[in-house]
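S.,

Sequence below, as promised.
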Amino acid sequence: MNIHTVFHIPTLHGKIFEGIFPMWKFAKLLPSKQTKSNLTFTIYCPNFGGNYKDLSAFLIKTRRKIRKRISLDDEFLNTHFTDTQVDELIQHGLYQKMNAREIEDFIFIACREQKLIHYNDLQQQMFAWKNIIEPRGYPFSFSTIQEFNIFKNKLKSIVNEWRLPVADIRVQGSSLRRANAKDVDIAIIIDESQIQQLKNMLFDRAKKLEYKGKVAEFEKYQLKLNRQINEGIIKNRQFSILEERGKTFMQKCYSEDIVPFGGLNVSIIINGKSFDVSPYIKF
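The prediction came back faster than expected:
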């Protein structure tokens, strides 16, 4: 009987390796006399840039960036993970071949106080993104790539009908990380340079249609839209309507039967703001 054992070890510092490898080799990896097995093994250690000093510096730099991002947002909890756990999650991300932006964003979003993602769950979500969703190219809420493509085309048509930017539309959020996600989050990405023109269009449409003759209600709408823009997100209820007593954006989506199982949430996200968080699947 031939047995080949593979050890996947994300990080190995030289002294630790020297200390434990002989124990594995001689105490645990010798062929058993009783089974007369031929046991071979492989130690797999990913290349993190050539030496352990580079890895250590990367861990420190990335951890500091994550801590700083969390500290700047009141909705996030900086004590959710210990430094050791953050370092382990970073290394887990590297092992999954995630880029630095993905690693930072995964750990960052896990610290949102209202939706905390625990250590083991986050590891599983990192694995799901890199090994299931990213390779196949569509979220958990869809059965096939064909089904997802039909959804994309129909939604893009509605976005265009509402005169919203269609150049950069993406799936983001939990449907890219876990199978039991409640809905599919869609981000219409815009740059700072597009904000004023978009705001003017939404104000004009809301004033003429949804809030026609309703001065106080329109002023509340203006305040809400400006507040959301400052936060980096415009929620779909602020997209207004296209005709008097017409459908809202989401009512149109439901009437066109494009909402995937579990639900749909569409927002405009300002590039580089706190809601601009990977992973993404672009339309």
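The two ends are 51 Å apart (CA to CA).

Coffee later?
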